[in-house]
Design goal:
- One of its GO terms (molecular function) is P-type monovalent copper transporter activity.
- Keywords: Copper, Copper transport, Ion transport, Membrane, Translocase, Transmembrane, Transmembrane helix, Transport.
- It comes from Eremococcus coleocola ACS-139-V-Col8.
- InterPro entries: HAD-like_sf (IPR036412), HAD_sf (IPR023214), P_typ_ATPase (IPR001757).
- By secondary structure, the chain is mostly helical.
- It has 7 helices and 3 strands; from the N terminus they run ααβαβαβααα.
- It has 2 domains: 78 residues, 3-Layer(aba) Sandwich (Rossmann fold); 65 residues.
- The protein is 56% helix and 8% strand.
- A 3-stranded parallel sheet has the order 1-2-3.
- The longest helix is centred in the middle third of the chain and has 35 residues.
- It is elongated and about 80 Å long.
Length: 158
């Protein structure tokens, strides 16, 4: 946690959350902190709500702004959290992981069809006397698309 708040306030919040903290941070300090994390090869997610957070929100990998925050913070962020509930951050992370998983599954379904159907249509089995028309190879495309759509609709988070 990097905050402009004083040491005592920052320490209390950080202890309750069980996280490290940086107190008395200016906008430049926050920006420099983000840059140092990025130079270490770390991906950086930041939550901010004020004008002082805007420069850092603009350079992090994923910037989250709280909807009750300043307009410049909202404009600088990638995602806007509709409530001021810290648990929304965890929900967002779970949603991104679930979405990434679904994208990979759907890529496998879509590509899997192509890896099988295209070689068959191109005559892979012709030496064995089995010739499949390209039109017939295209028939499984519709079920493949339906499976991908149903799988995408099945996106759930805990």
């Amino acid at each position: 946690m990097a905050t402009g708040d004083n040491e005592r306030a920052a320490k209390e919040v950080a202890q309750e959350l069980g996280i490290n903290y940086y107190a008395n941070q200016s906008p430049q300090d926050k920006y420099d902190l983000v840059e140092s994390f990025k130079q270490d090869g770390k991906q950086v997610i930041m939550v901010g709500d004020g004008i002082n957070d805007a420069p850092s929100l603009a350079v992090v990998d994923i910037g989250l702004a709280i909807s009750a925050g300043s307009q410049v913070a909202l404009d600088s962020a990638d995602v806007i959290l509709s409530k001021s509930d810290p648990s929304d951050i965890q929900t967002f992370l779970e949603l991104t992981q679930a979405t990434n998983r679904k994208m990979k599954q759907n890529l496998l379904w879509g590509a899997g069809y192509n890896f099988i159907a295209i070689p068959l249509a191109a005559g892979l089995l012709a030496p064995l006397g089995i010739i499949i028309s390209p039109a017939w190879s295209g028939i499984p495309m519709s079920p493949s698309r339906i499976i991908v759509a149903l799988n995408a609709n099945n996106l759930k988070i805990k």
